[in-house]
Amino acid sequence: MHIPDGFLDLSICVIMYLATLVFWAFAFRRAKQVLSDRQVPLMATLTAMFFAAQMMNYPIVGGTTAHLLGGPTLAITLGPYAGLISMTIILLIQALFFGDGGITTFGANVWNMGIVGVFIPYLMCLLAMKTVKNRRGMLIGAFLGALIGDLLAAIFAGLELGLSRLSFPYSVPIAVTAMAIHHSFIGVGEGIVTAMIISVLWKTRPDLLRLPKVAPTWMGELPITPTASGGHPR
Amino acid sequence: MSQRRKLLAVSITISIIFVVIGCVWLSFSAETLDEVAERFGASESPAWTPPIPDYALPGFEGNVVANISIGIVFTLLTLGVVFSVGKVLEAKK
């Protein structure tokens, strides 16, 4: 989903940079308020792990391949603003050193994978956990959030491509449909892996899931109920 | 071993496993966007020449050991950058 230079019109690139800039400003401001030495090691290790995971390409339909993004897991464990900062660093290293994603399209790529791809999973997880309590709710939210987040990120990429009439000679419906079909399969994979990682963390290190989230104040924390003994959440 | 060191050791081990799998077995990449672009006739016009294009060190294309080394080095770089950014943000709290 990394859009290279030349695929988007300059006007779309500028709009996407400006929109992303607003989120970067809020993310860094909130991180300064919430981030502590308890979250930083987890943030660094998870980000490095997903950088490595993005090197594994597994085959999907039509002879194409896909790889994990990691945004949903980062969002659910650390909060969407921390996920945005992590995804920004991954995408920056990929663009600067490997040419994976463009420089002019960096704002659009961060918007798709670092904002849509982290905020939607966190919101879905919040909604799921308010409907179905604790572990089951979190796993349902993790799966659906990753699936829908990935799909919406692809739809945004399709929109940006379709609206770039000078660079991409096909209309919005064609570009969106082409991206959405493939990414519905990719989203299922991301959803399964996200739910598996959250399930493992729930069983082995539930304390990590209870760390304060770097999220907008209106979103708040994921409602995880600790047991009376302070051990595993139910 | 402290919990923090254990977390670091486990995550670096898992990352190295991912890099090896990604370089040895799951290295073939044909991303959806590239396929869509090719079908629709869109072409790239790079604004920047990356030092390691497409994750392959110039002169060592197809060399699995070089690819694994690059993957490990940049995984550790990512770890260091995020840790440093996190520490800066934490310090300013």
How would you describe the overall organization of this protein?
Chain A is built from 8 helices and 2 strands. In chain A, strand 1 and strand 2 (65-66) form a beta hairpin. In chain A, helix 2 (40-53) crosses helix 4 (80-98) and helix 3 packs across helix 7. In chain A, strands 1-2 form a two-stranded antiparallel sheet. Chain A has 234 residues and is mainly alpha-helical. Chain B is built from 3 helices and no strands. In chain B, helix 1 packs antiparallel against helix 3 (64-91). At the A-B interface, helix 1, helix 2, strand 1, strand 2 and helix 4 of A face helix 1, helix 2 and helix 3 of B.
Order of helices and strands of chain B: HHH
Task: Please give the largest β-sheet of chain A.
Answer: 2 strands, antiparallel
What is the C-alpha radius of gyration of chain B, as a whole number of Å? 18 Å
Helix percent of chain A reads 55-70%
Helical fraction of chain B: 55-70%
Distance linking N and C termini of chain A = 37 Å
Structural class of chain A: mainly alpha
Low-confidence segments of chain B: none
Task: Give me the count of strands of chain A.
Answer: 2
- In DSSP terms (H or I, runs of 4 or more residues), the helix count of chain A works out at 8
Q: Shape of chain B, please?
A: extended
Shape field of chain A: globular
